[in-house]
Amino acid sequence: MQDFLTHIDTLTTKFALTAVLLPLLAAIVNYVLPAKSKITGWISTLAILGSAVLCAFIFAKVWNQHEVHQQQLWFSIGDTKVYAGILLNNLSVLMLVLVSLVALPVHIYSTAYMKEDARYGRYFTYLSFFCFSMLALVVTDNLVLFYAFWELVGFSSYLLIGFWFTKPKAILANKKAFIMNRIGDIGLLTAIITLFVSCHTFDITQLFGANALVKTIAIPTNWQYLACAGLFLAVAAKSAQFPLHTWLPDAMEGPTSISALIHAATMVAAGVFLLGRFYPFFTPDELTILAIIGTFTAFMAATIALTQNDLKRILAYSTISQLGFMVAAMGIGAYSSSLFHLATHAFFKCLLFLVAGIVIHEMQHIKEENNLEIDPQNIQTMGGLRKKLPLTFIAAVIGGFALIGFPLTSGYLSKDSILVRSFEWAEDRNGIEKLLPLVLFLTSWLTAFYVARMVYKVFFGEFKPAISNPKINLHISDGGWQYKLPLILLAIGSLFPLFSYNPLASENAWLVKGFSSADTANELSIYQTYIPVLVNLGVVLVLYWAYTIYIGQRRLPISATAFLVRFSYNEWYIDRSYQRIIVKPVLALSRFACWIDPNIIDGFLHLLSKITLAFAKVTEWLDKNIVDGFLHLLAALVLGIGNFARRFQNGKVQYYLFSMLAIILAIFIFKILI
Asked: Is the model's pLDDT at 649 over the cut of 80?
């Protein structure tokens, strides 16, 4: 029996490795094919389909049954042995199936959405590599490899955000995403080094498993804080939490299909996944800080989404807000509720982005056909599209209701679970902690308003340009099956049956049961009865209020030029503050350094070179005229003396006698004179 189980575990591990490598293989094949080859899209789609099938099998074998962990020696340094392998537990297999199932409709959608693009093959090469990086990240059991794949997720997202690299905004967006994520990467690297120094291992199972070393080893307080700060930076950067959230709205410059994948189950989900992996490491005080930051981020992003007019930007801030809910849930100990919301959010947010892609695509078509000067992404120029895009409209309504957390949707189960747990958590607390559930409660109502505003402005009323020009042609539709099938699949995933047989009880969801042991508390309370009722009663009232404003033409209770409206529209001035406080001083310092380099440093070097050349010329003159002149003079003297002395050696004896007599005579006279 034990041999049979070992065989099954080995087979499961091989399936997991195959599921991870299939997208990489597709990326390699697509890389060598021509850039415009349409077969590249189907190669990537078949690869992710294969991964999804294998991940579903792995999920069935591992979920709530037993952990599969196989590894082998990777390398050793001295006495330290580093092992690497595959870790399959509930968290791993959930992320495997989530990433592959959400990526599959995105691939199908992309085959139609990107068909006219000149770099079609490059797009699918990047997309497959992106999926490979994320799948590998969730199964690795080693912090070194974890960091490597974490970096690859960031790198591939950089390529995709800036895919249309001829657009200046796209280049600025992917640079911004890359730089802000490097801040988080430094934090994660710091945390990994700190953990290794403290625990002497990179093995995730040993560090955070059943007998977690991070709990049994007394890590110095300062190191604990350092590692925790590093992990927070990593989460804040990848999952766009305050204060490192500003890159995500700008990342909308990439193709909408990529926005759907980044916002649903890949890059931004990596931060929450990181919290799930490292969860045993955090102390109660550190978790409270996470709860505060997550709650603030959720509220802040929701208030900003209220006034945005760019369709994708509204959804981007919605993602930041929902990620704030997940981080806050981790902070209050609602581990299962956080991962539950991560799973449900992946489906309905991906659905909403694909809806946005169809709307923007058709608006661009209207713009080109009628020579209109409109922004295809501005909801102020839309209206009445439900008549021309019926399936897209239905999908938008389902996705919107799920985002709001309306009954019969998956979002209702997961978001209300977080709200209930937040009130339970705050019951015995004081100060600012007591306010957190109230802020999350209010944020849910704000979510309902901006979703209603978006849907009403896009799909209801009259098409805005047609009001002044009734002759405008609206030759638009939901598109072919490559558009429709992903919408249908994701819409089904956004409803309750995929997660729970009971549409009104989140505690019965299979996903919650799979992680309930990790929660700090799981008792039934009065909040489970009243909070869902109150929040959804408020949601209904907010939806009706928004209807009276945007359909019934009722005036807003606040002026469009009021400070709060401008504060929201300008995104709390956070990005502008960064530009003024950080970016401008850094650029000024760079320009100053740039001026110093040619004028001071290069000037000094040029002066030094001139002085050296002048000294060299003086030395050359001295060498030529003094040293060489002295030597030449000395040589001439020697030559002259030699020539003079040579005259005395003429071979005539009588001349020698005369010379001797002359010398003796000269000496005799000299003596007499002296």
From this structure: no
Q: Phi and psi at residue 386, in whole multiples of 5°?
A: -65, -25
Q: How far is CA 36 from CA 33, 116, 160, 180, in A?
A: 8, 9, 17, 33
What interhelical angle do 335-370 and 256-264 show, nearest 10?
Answer: 170
Of 215, 222, 151, 157, nearest to 188 (Cα)?
151
Residue 226: CB partners within 8 Å, gap ≥ 6?
A: 190, 191, 194
pLDDT at position 38, please?
A: 86
Classify 408 as helix, strand or coil.
coil
User: In which band, very low, low, confident or very high, does the pLDDT at 535 lie, cut at 50, 70 and 90?
Assistant: very high
Cβ contact 202:192 at 8 Å: yes
How far is 64 from 509, CA to CA, in rounded Å?
13
Give pairs for 33-36: CB < 8 Å, separation 24+. Answer: 33/121, 34/121, 35/118, 35/119, 35/120, 35/121, 35/122, 36/118, 36/120, 36/121
Q: How would you classify the pairing of strands 68-77 and 80-88?
A: antiparallel
Residue type, 138: V
> Of 448, 325, 477, 308, which Cα lies nearest the Cα of 389?
477
pLDDT band at 647 (very low <50, low <70, confident <90, very high): low
Residue 285's nearest CA partner among 241, 235, 232 is 232
Q: Can you read off the two tokens belonging to residue 105?
A: 């409709």
Q: With a cut of 80, say whether residue 655 has pLDDT above it.
A: no
Task: Give the containing element (helix H, strand E) for 634.
Answer: helix 628-646
**Direct distance between the N- and C-terminal alpha carbons of the chain, in angstroms, rounded to an integer:** 133
- What's residue 648's pLDDT? 63
Q: For residue 368, give every residue at least 6 positions away whose Cβ sits within 8 Å of its Cβ, in sequence order, or none.
A: none
What local confidence, expressed as pLDDT, does residue 521 receive?
54
pLDDT at 7: 59
What is the number of other CB atoms lying within 10 angstroms of the CB of residue 148?
Answer: 14
pLDDT per position as a tens digit, 274-321: 999 999 999 999 999 999 999 999 999 999 999 999 999 999 999 999
On the question of pLDDT at 589 being above 80, the answer is: yes
pTM of full prediction above 0.90: no
Residue 80 bridge partners (DSSP): 77
548 Cβ contact list (under 8 Å, min separation 6): 554
Given a contact cutoff of 8 angstroms between Cβ atoms, the answer to whether 242 and 297 are in contact is yes
In a 13 Å sphere around the CA of 544, the CA atoms on its Cβ side amount to 6
How many C-beta atoms lie closer than 10 Å to residue 171's C-beta?
Answer: 15
The answer to whether residue 574 scores a pLDDT higher than 80 is: yes
Q: What percent of the chain has a predicted confidence (pLDDT) above 90?
A: 56
Q: Are 549 and 277 in contact (CB under 8 A)?
A: no
Which DSSP string do the residues of 68-136 spell out, in sequence order? EEEEEEEEEETTEEEEEEEEESHHHHHHHHHHHHHHHHHHHHHHHHTTT-TTHHHHHHHHHHHHHHHHH
Q: Output the six-digit token pair for 266.
A: 């890949």
**How far apart, in whole angstroms, are the C-alpha atoms of residue 38 and residue 187?**
41
Q: What is the 3-state secondary structure (H, E, C) of 473-542?
A: CCCCCCCCHHHHHHHHHHHHHCEHHHCCCCCCCHHHCHHHHHHHHHCCCCCCCCHHHHHHHHHHHHHHHH
Give the per-residue pLDDT at 2: 52
Distance CA 486, CA 496 (A): 18
| Spatial separation of the C-alpha atoms in residues 210 and 494, rounded to whole Å | 33
Q: In whole angstroms, how large is the CA radius of gyration of the chain?
A: 38
Six-digit token string for 29 = 């094949």
Mean model confidence pLDDT for the chain: 89
Q: pLDDT tens across 440-474, in order?
A: 999 999 999 999 999 999 999 888 887 777 778 88
